[in-house]
Amino acid sequence: MGHEKDIVIRYFDGKLPDQLSAETVEDSAKAKVAVVACETKGTHPRYGKLVELSIKLLEIRRDPALALKVLDSYDGFEDPEEEFSDAYVRKTGITEEMLHDQKIDREKATALFEQAEVILCYNAGNIRPFLDREFPCVKDKVFACCRNQIDWPAKDFECRVLGHLTMEHGWWYDSLRANVESSVVTQLLNEVDEDSGNTYMDELIKRAEEPLIVVQADVAPRDRRLLKKERFFWDRDKGVWQRCMGTSTLARVKSSLAAKGFEGELEEVETLPASDRFKLGGF
User: Fold this and answer.
1) Class of the CATH domain delimited by 10-208
2) pTM of the prediction?
3) End-to-end CA distance of the chain
4) Mean pLDDT of the residues in the chain
């Protein structure tokens, strides 16, 4: 007969205390980062519109990274002057009435972005192109992606959906709004990875600050399937397989390919700044 086990999952209402850690850290060992979430009307950044923006400016310990306090925050709406479908309202919890005549305070948002060394998002690939368009000050900033730059599968978290990750850590939330998501991401990143003993934020920032390396491979046909599995793409103009990745990812890819009997050569052809990551049409 099996044994039943009760698991307690605590509720998180999206409200963060100003003080996130009691640790005392010297000013020289501190930095500022911004956790950002947003909601848009339309998914393509060239045509879609930003309708909600949430920013949490955090003071962190640099190494190993740990969020210490919330220094400032901003939550704002913007009226896209478009009709909302019932499906959109159900998905986002945002109605036309909530946005009527609302305008995002770009001066306030810009002031927060300018203070941040790194901008942290749940899915930076979706958010960055919108922010690049709306806020010129972020174009040279380093962005970090909670969803894709933390190796969740290696930590036995098979699903990278934000709600699933929080449940796996013993807590849950029930709002889809951006102002709650920015708090949820902050809370999750300050959780401690049992393997390393450091926070997820520490892993994320270290990976985000790695330069990007453009890697090319000229291989025999039998090895092409291995490159496809490692997300290389075929560059028709150059006639080579190519991928852009950070240094730690490159080390993992080389190890993975070698274990599968890959016999081709990987050539590092170009190095790009970390601030190029997640740009529209970029890497």
Assistant:
1) alpha beta
2) 0.89
3) 52
4) 92
